[in-house]
């Protein structure tokens, strides 16, 4: 059984064949005062390394309190709150903290100086060809102390720490899966990858492709990828000098950044499947990188062309997705008092019932509005005399004004021809607070009088509203009391004479 377990587990150490320098003239700088260029960093030579002893090359206080965005301002990100603690920029001889680049986000980690002090690396960026570590000082640390700890040649320990190790596993799983997915799309369906992103945990990554895929095609691509995963194809990296004339690689999906001056061309190879220029920290094998594709594509419309995004998950992010999906489904099943598989059917049933109930409420409201209207139309205080009255209601309705309006519509069909009238209808919710809204609707046979009463309510009750012709509507905020607001309406109506 031990052997079987071993073959199903990813290797604990990176095989020596992972990192291959394929140029006879390319060497990794050994001078401890020189920084190894991005492309040849320890994190790129050995993605499973979680600790490294190295030396400091330079250190300076950062000019800005926030880490610069490497010229990616075009993508509108939420501006993080400006942290107050100072940042220092540390360049090391070598590092296992991957600097953001080529679509892969930065690692985080911890530096240990010779005096045993621990320093938090909140981000690493590539500046030209070199990795810069951004160290956020703790309250008890100061810039002078940092400049001393990272003076040229000083010994420095680099580690990913728990958080950094989780990030590494996540980024490696997602990035290697992206290469696999793009390769299968290209090889099996002749679909190029136009752009991609592994985003940040726990959101899905995506590849952008020129056309949508049918659910069958998506299932096919997922199957093809996972067959290769099951085979456990190996991954390795080949590095050589960048061609003098060919700075920018003209590969299918990924190019080398224009400002990259490391002078190293790095190609990531999935055995027998894919060769792609890339600087990322790839898993040494696609073993265990089960790939989940979202069973639909999302169409993006841009002014120039239309493309779609195919979303994917693998590794820790896929597990996080399973956990959150399961939690949502279980919670919904609990609310619906049914088993998880019955959730869609039960939700559909509730939606259908709700539609029927809404229809029933509408029918009953129409009937009630007609009944109230009849009652109002017959409330003449004398033969041929005008109808001038206020009717207040309590309605917990999402559209109380609509209901009052339905009463006026019914009223106009019931009132005897030629009888002058002016109605003030108001409606409050059953539980009133200082922020409750009472709606008011004025309806009358004389447009001028409707406006006069509306103006009076505006002045006396601070009702906000307006109207045109025979109708005027407004809103009153606060607690509507018969003894106060009701009386105010009554006194506004006293002045109405027909
Ligand atoms: Zn890549």
From TrEMBL:
Residues 59-85 are annotated as: Disordered. InterPro entries: Alanyl-tRNA_Editing_Enzymes (IPR051335), Thr/Ala-tRNA-synth_IIc_edit (IPR018163), Transl_B-barrel_sf (IPR009000). Residues 347-374 form a coiled coil. The keyword Cell division does not apply. The keyword Metal-binding applies. GO terms for molecular function: aminoacyl-tRNA ligase activity; metal ion binding; nucleotide binding; Ser-tRNA(Ala) deacylase activity. Keywords: Aminoacyl-tRNA synthetase, Coiled coil, Ligase, Metal-binding, Zinc. Residues 59-69 have a biased composition (Polar residues). This is Alanyl-tRNA synthetase domain-containing protein. It comes from Lentinus tigrinus ALCF2SS1-6.
